[in-house]
Amino acid sequence: MKRFATLLALAGLFASPAAAQVVVDAPAGQVSGTTSGATRIFKGIPYALPPIGERRWKAPAPMPRWQGVRAATGFGPACIQPTPKAASVYSPTVPLPTSEDCLSLNIWSPRNASKAPVLVWIHGGALLTGSSREDLYDGRRLAERGIVVVSINYRLGALGWMAHPGLSAENPKGLSGNYGLLDQVAALKWVRDNVAAFGGDPGNVTIAGESAGALSVTYLMTAPPARGLFHRAIAQSAYMVTTPELKRTAYGLPSGEAAGQGVAAALKTPDVAALRSLDAQRLTDGAAAAGFQPWGLVDGAILPEQLVDAFDAGRQARVPVLAGFNQGEIRSLRILAPPAPADAASYEAAIRARYGDLSAAFLQLYPAATYRESILATTRDALYGWTSERLARRQAERGQASYLYLFDHGYPAMDEAGLHAFHASELPYMFGTLDRTGPLWPRIPDTRREVALSDAMVGYWASFAATGVPTARGAPPWPRFRDARTVMHFEKGPSAVPNLLGAMFDLNETVVRQRRADGVAWNWNVGLAAPVCCATPTR
Questions:
Q1: How far apart are CA 1 and CA 409, in angstroms?
Q2: Structural domain boundaries in the chain
């Protein structure tokens, strides 16, 4: 017995400090988290009632205050998403546990924080996959810079974004779809009401996201229900694409309600009751197999109009913005680019046929001599480059500080895999999670150069969230975009370069304006996939 008591005493002596418990009493209820160094960590806190049963395809409902102390020491499950068919560079280390009961968030807070800036992270994944629990999104490094980091789940796929006439009929305003966006709004309201208990300032909130998370940032910037819930925005690889409308065909896209009817027909479900009776995973897989693509829907209320129209008219949230994209976006997303022709001559002939008066300008930016690279660059710029610069321009026009970047960094394993600066490759640098990438992600070397770049990006992102001005110790100043159209170029290290992107924006803006005038969708159908109908710009 004496020996056993001694062993217990030694076990207590050497217990990991990461296991220390901390309890916070928030308006939502008491939660128990853990500490790691100078950071308090709370995982899997529910911010809304589970959207299951009759609450499937309804706006998220607030949770009443819970009784007792809720353990917040483990991540909540990811929202239901299609069963993976093949591994990719984005595959997690272990499969994500999923559930329809998934509306939770996680918090990393500096110990003893008081009125600290808040960054709310919205994960990517085409509104179809992903989760706030992914290793890349660990918020500790940002918390060490004085930021309260909140990462959120939101409904995905058909469960989060599908509309249907039967669902619209249930709604007092005749609306359906956009449930995932309403989840994001509900999470921001939870942050407004509760984050002060965790040391955060509800009056200093930055929304941030990458890919579909950045698309969500632009949705939130134009969504009236989100107005006033955030004060700055970070959009990494956003895409201001054509948005389907709820009730009518527009720009050649079927209405959201028609898309939902197509899912119901494919699943042989005659009405909403039958859809609600389906197993969530079967429904999600069936909708994906039927070709359902989740998007926000222009419904006149949650998303009042096309994103491009809202930003042109100045009806978006007037907040400072930090936006940018990656040089190799399409290297890991080649499905978004059309197949290459047999040779350079075929490429040039196709471009001249499709772009008419614009073909000379197009071929100067995307030359035939390097047509395989040009194909990737065309899709990259039409989706991510044009959107990033448009965000910076439009916010600057409305008197808001805007900052633009190009992530163009490579390292041996990445470049040898043909993935130089691929889509999302900036994430481990700006989160400081260089050692937390997935099994198929090209391994980042543990070198001084990589750490220095990450330190700079963590600093820029944290200071922007804190003050609206991105600065980093030992790194160059980041001028506003309006100052000579300056772009922060993250290559070997950060460097501020005036007019780095040249004529890219002007060409793509001209094409988009023509497509809009002709009632044709924009962004996806570019380069070799461009319609001949829109070749000549409006005079």
A1: 60
A2: 1-319
Q: How many residues does the chain have?
A: 539
Second CATH level (architecture) for the domain 1-319: 3-Layer(aba) Sandwich (3.40)
- Write out the E strands in 383-448: 402-407
123 is annotated as an active-site residue: no
| 423 a catalytic residue | yes
Three-class secondary structure of residue 108 per DSSP = strand
Could you write out the three-class secondary structure of 163-196?
A: CCHHHHHHCCCCCCCCHHHHHHHHHHHHHHHHHH
Q: Establish how many alpha carbons lie within 13 A of residue 105's alpha carbon, considering only the half-sphere containing its beta carbon.
A: 27
Catalytic residue (choose from 211, 216, 388, 402):
211
Is there a contact between 79 and 138 (Cβ–Cβ < 8 Å)? no
The answer to whether 490 and 458 are in contact (CB under 8 A) is no
Q: Which of 245, 257, 329, 348 is catalytic?
A: 329
Burial class (CB in 10 A: 0-12, 13-18, 19+), 3: exposed
- Per-residue pLDDT tens, the chain, 539 aa: give them: 333 333 333 333 333 444 589 999 999 999 999 999 999 999 999 999 999 999 999 999 999 999 999 999 999 999 999 999 889 999 988 889 999 999 999 999 999 999 999 999 999 999 999 999 999 999 999 999 999 999 999 999 999 999 999 999 999 999 999 999 999 999 999 999 999 999 999 999 999 999 999 999 999 999 999 999 999 999 999 999 999 999 999 999 999 999 999 999 999 999 999 999 999 999 999 999 999 999 999 999 999 999 999 999 999 999 999 999 999 999 999 999 999 999 999 999 999 999 999 999 999 999 999 999 999 999 999 999 999 999 999 999 999 999 999 999 999 999 999 999 999 999 999 999 999 999 999 999 999 999 999 999 999 999 999 999 999 999 999 999 998 999 999 999 999 999 999 999 999 999 999 999 999 999 889 999 999 854 444 43
Strands 494-498, 486-490: pairing is antiparallel
As a whole number of angstroms, the distance between CA 341 and CA 209 comes to 35
- Host H or E run for residue 444: none
Query: Cα 282–283–287 angle (5° rounding)?
Result: 115
- The CA distance from 313 to 451, in Å, is 42
Vertex 89, ends 87 and 95: CA angle to 5°? 50
The verdict on whether 88 is a catalytic residue reads no
Pick the catalytic residue from 164, 420, 423, 489: 423
CA distances from 33 to 105, 135, 201 (A): 13, 18, 20
